[in-house]
Amino acid sequence: MQSDEEPPPPPSRPAVPARPKRHVQLTKYHSPDAPLVPNDQKVLLELTGISSAASRAPLDLVAVIDVSGSMEGDKLENVKNALRFVIHKLTDQDRLCIVIFDDVAERLCLLRPVSEASRAYFEGLVGDLKTRGGTNIRAGLEAGLDVVVANRKITTGRAANVMLMSDGQDNFDPTQLEPGNVAVHTYGFGADHDPVLMRAIAERSLDGLYSSVPDSVDPKELTEAFAPILGGLTTIIAQDLELIITATQGEATIKKVDAGTYRLRTSSDVSSSSVTVSFGTLYSAEVRSVIVQLALNDRTASPHSYRANVAEVQYRFSFQGQQVNSSPERITIHRKRRASDPAIAPPRVQKEVARLQHVASIEEAIKKADGGELDDARNILGKALEALERVVVDPIVDMLRRELRKLLDLFKTEETYRKQGRATAISSLACHGRQRGGSKDTPIFDTPRMHTNREQAKQPDDMPVPSADQDAQQEEPEVPQDVLPMVLRLLAAVLSLLAFSIIASARTSGWDGGYYEPYRYGYKL
């Protein structure tokens, strides 16, 4: 049987032995104390990708392109420009396959490495794209998923993703899709695409993202929409990432876990209260935030205050075929009779709660606008903007305000809402739900590499596009992970020699050490 894929070449240089445990960092934010009476506490948990993008998972990417008749003209040309950007970003350790669809789907090539030699081949395929026929999104998506779900054999340590691009609509149930562990990122063009369907397709996968691309005369508009997610896909430093929160029996129970649109699994064990959040991939410098609402038990019978271990947190992920499990970390709160008001959370927690309320307001405004109540929708957005005035100003809060102002403009009339406002608002919900992406005006969740890609996407066509490896070389070089222990051992040796020389000097110089005399020989009388 003929293979549907080509193997990547051996790495050009031996990989630095990885210590993937250092790829992810957990940070906890919560009130230091709580009263002995029953009360609720909000805890913010953040997982951050702290590894350099120089250590990243190689990418298997399938681009699924709508070539139906409605894509004729500027739309298809903009798709071609965006695909050329993708081709130049990928390296020979990454693989690409192109699938097109109209009434039917067609795979144009194998899943093959993007080497210097194959770039011309891929660009030839892109340059020959022509419009034809109707729109069958389901056929294109199923053909694309077959490449990486059903037919791919080389999978260990590789990150499989699908990018689906269409300007149309289709009448099928996305819950019938089985993307497995493959992320499906969808891009809807113009006023005629179905944003609800495109978002549902993306969120059927574990960490896929829907993005709306408005009609524009700017040929760079689509490339700029592609660029940030591609910047993330070429900086994946953790896969199959999960966060496990377990309440301490007798101390607390978990009332609610808010992790956006990521999947939650609740433990069926009646003896424990445990929730697992599945995130999929994590990019370098990317952050995943989770708000956990804990109900603390009644401790008024306790004769004194005490430090309560109310919950335990752990995360796990895979990288280059290695499974990593963190050590459990406790959430400890001082329970006492006179404690801080449990309704007042730390500033970092307040800001994340404000963002979640911001998201709920956008969702409510969409429902009102879809029901023909556009004035009510604008009132909801206006009140959300006023609420942000009471939150401590920082860059993220400022972008949330800009996001609301933009939506208020797009919700002004039924026409602007139908043509652009609805899709833009749904795209905003998708970005917040995944804590990933954002528009060029409000790049709320951009990482440094995403920002770099956005800037490169704006460059003139005659300027060369650097590959992901070249971007990594321009960034701060990664310190080999086996160097730090060596440095610490060397430093310890130097300090030991220095201490020995001081003691020897004291012995030979007749120094009267006074109070410090007992320490000269390593003991105290």
Please explain how this structure is put together:
The chain contains twelve helices and 18 strands. It has helices spanning 74-89, 116-127, 137-150, 195-204, 221-233, 347-370, 374-388, 395-410, 414-434, 448-457, 468-474, 483-509; strands spanning 24-29, 33-35, 39-49, 59-66, 95-101, 105-107, 112-113, 159-166, 183-189, 210-213, 236-247, 252-258, 263-266, 273-283, 287-296, 306-319, 322-325, 329-336. With 525 residues, it is an alpha/beta fold. The longest helix has 27 residues, at 483-509. The model is unreliable at 477-484 and 506-525 (pLDDT under 50). Strands 2, 11, 13, 14, 16, 17 and 18 form a seven-stranded mixed sheet that branches. Strands 4, 5, 6, 7, 8, 9 and 10 form a seven-stranded mixed sheet that branches.
